[in-house]
Amino acid sequence: MGKYVSVGKIVNFHGIKGEAKVGCSKNQQDFFMSLDTVYLKDNDKYTPLSISYAKPHKNMMLVKFDGINSINDLLEYKGCLLFVDEDVIRDTLDEDEFLIDELVGLEVFDIKNGDKLGFVIGVSNNGATDLISIKTNSKRISLVPFVKAIVPVVDIKNKRIEINNIEGLLE
User: Fold this and answer.
1) Which CATH architecture has domain 4-90?
2) Residue 97 pLDDT grade (very low, low, confident, very high; cuts 50, 70, 90)
């Protein structure tokens, strides 16, 4: 196993039998339910936790881990991030889906004239769509909807994004 990616966080317990309330992105609930194992990070060591079951509950996931059968067993993990191997996530990505760390640092260019406009410093979601945060050449930060009409070219290999720089998008 190589690089790990965070997929959730144990935010609390649910009931008295060791079920964990896990926070994760709403659009990742199906992915989370498909997992058999997640990893807890302790210093630089990743410890596997086998999942008995995971199911959506309100805006969270309820997760039962093998061997954790009470609140006391779970309390030491409260607040811990849960990870999976990066390859597990890569196998589930569609053609136009990317990991956030692949996008951060990519240079941003105008698709029409090739001018460098800035670089990606982050990715967020406003509930309707993903947004990329671009730090422009003038050091301002602009949020750009990460949709094909505005961001038609994402070239991870050459570390660049090309955007339709419509009037008022940046600055």
Assistant:
1) Beta Barrel (2.40)
2) confident
